[in-house]
Amino acid sequence: MAELNSSIILLLVVLISTHLLSSANEVYNIAEYGAKSDGRTDSTKPLLGAWQAACGSPGPSTVHVPAGSFLVRQVTFNGPCKSSKIVIRIDGTLVVASDLGRVGEWIVFDHVEGVSVYGGTIDGRGASLWTCKATGRRCPGGATSLTFRNSKRIMISGLTSMNSELYHVVINDCEGVTVQGVRIMAPGNSPNTDGIHVQMSSYVTITGAVIRTGDDCISIGPGTTNLWIEQVNCGPGHGISIGSLGKGYDEEGVQNVTVKTTVFTGTENGLRIKTWGRPSEGFVKGVVFEHAVMQNVRNPIIIDQNYCPDNKGCPDQNSGVKISQVRYNDIHGSSASQVAVNFDCSASNPCTGIGLQDIKLTYGNRPAESSCKHADGTTSGFVVPPSCI
C-alpha cells in the first residue's frame, strides 16, 4: 500500500512539474538574438528569430524589445503558432528602414491567434514620402505601419504609432480584436494616414485612443460587423468614417457599429458615412453614434452617397449602398460650416430609419443648419439645427 501511495505521489509530482514547465512564460529578448539599439543596424532578423522561437514555444511566451531604437525592414510574423499566448512587449522604438515605401506593408501579423502587443513606439518616418506627394512627382506607394490579418484574439495596448507613410493600423479579416490606450500621431497635412482601419472583421473594440493624423482617425470598411468604438479623441484628421463603401458591386455590408463618447477637435468631419455613387449590393445597418462633442468641426454629421473622386467611374450614377437604422444621440458642440447636419443620400436607395435625438450644434453664435436629400427618419428631444427629415 505504501508503495502504491508513493507511486501516485510521484505521478502527481511529474504531472504538476510538466504543467508548470508548459505554462511558464518564456522570454525571448531580441538583443540576445543580435539586435542593436542604435537605430542604424538592421534588427529585422533578430526580431524575426525571437518571434519564431516564441511561436514554436509550447507555452506562453514573450518577445521583448528592450529600450532603445531598433531599425526594422519589412517583416511578417506568420502563424499558426504552437504557443496560444504570445506577448510582444515593446519598451523601445521600432524604426522603419528608409527604403520601405515600395513594399506596401511594414509590420504584419498573419494567421496568428492569442497575440498581444504592449507598449512602445513604432515610427514610420513618413515625412519624405509626404513631401514627395506634395510636389506632384511620381512617388513610391508607401507602407502601412502595422497590419493584422486572418487572425483571432488580438490585443493592442498602449502602443504609439507615429508618422506612418500610409495607414497606421489595419485590422483585416480578423475576429476578436481589442485596441486600447493607443496614441496615433501624424501631421494634419499628411496624406492617406488613416489612424485605424477595420475591414472584413468582427467583434473589434477600440477604446481610449488619441488619434491625430491627416486622414480618417478611424475608417470602417466593407464586411465589418459588431464594432465598438468608445472614448476616442480625434483631431486633426477627417473624423470617424464608415466608408468609403460601394466601390465594388458585390461588396459586403457593415452592420452593428457603435461609436460613443468621442471628441472631435478641428476635424474635417465628425461622424461620417461615405459611399461611392455607383451600383452596389453593399449596405450599412444598425449604427449608433452617441455622446459626441464637436469642436469647430467642418461636417459634424454627414452622410455622403455621391462620392466620386475626380468624377471618374461613377458620374451621374446613384449609390446602390442601402443605409438604414442609423441613430444619432446626444451630439453637441460647434460646426465650422453653416450646415452641420448633411444627409446627401442616394436617389435610388434613400436612407431610412435615421434617428436624431438631443442634437445641439452651433455655427458661430447661432444655430447651425441642416440639409437632407432622400433621407427619412424621426426626431426626438431637442434637435438644433431643426431637422429636415
Task: Record the SSE blueprint.
Layout: H1 2-23, E1 26-29, E2 38-42, H2 44-55, E3 61-65, E4 69-72, E5 75-78, E6 86-90, E7 93-96, E8 105-110, E9 115-118, E10 121-123, H3 127-135, E11 144-149, E12 152-157, E13 160-162, E14 169-172, E15 175-180, E16 183-185, E17 196-199, E18 202-212, E19 218-220, E20 225-234, E21 240-245, E22 254-265, E23 269-276, E24 283-297, E25 299-307, E26 322-335, E27 339-344, E28 351-363, E29 366-367, E30 369-373, E31 375-384
Parallel strand pairs: 1-3, 2-4, 3-6, 4-7, 5-8, 6-9, 7-10, 8-11, 9-12, 10-13, 11-14, 12-15, 13-16, 14-17, 15-18, 16-18, 17-19, 18-20, 19-21, 20-22, 21-23, 22-24, 23-25, 24-26, 25-27, 26-28, 27-30, 28-31
Antiparallel strand pairs: 28-29
InterPro entries: Glyco_hydro_28 (IPR000743), PbH1 (IPR006626), Pectin_lyas_fold (IPR012334), Pectin_lyase_fold/virulence (IPR011050)
GO molecular function, one term: galacturan 1,4-alpha-galacturonidase activity
Family: Belongs to the glycosyl hydrolase 28 family.
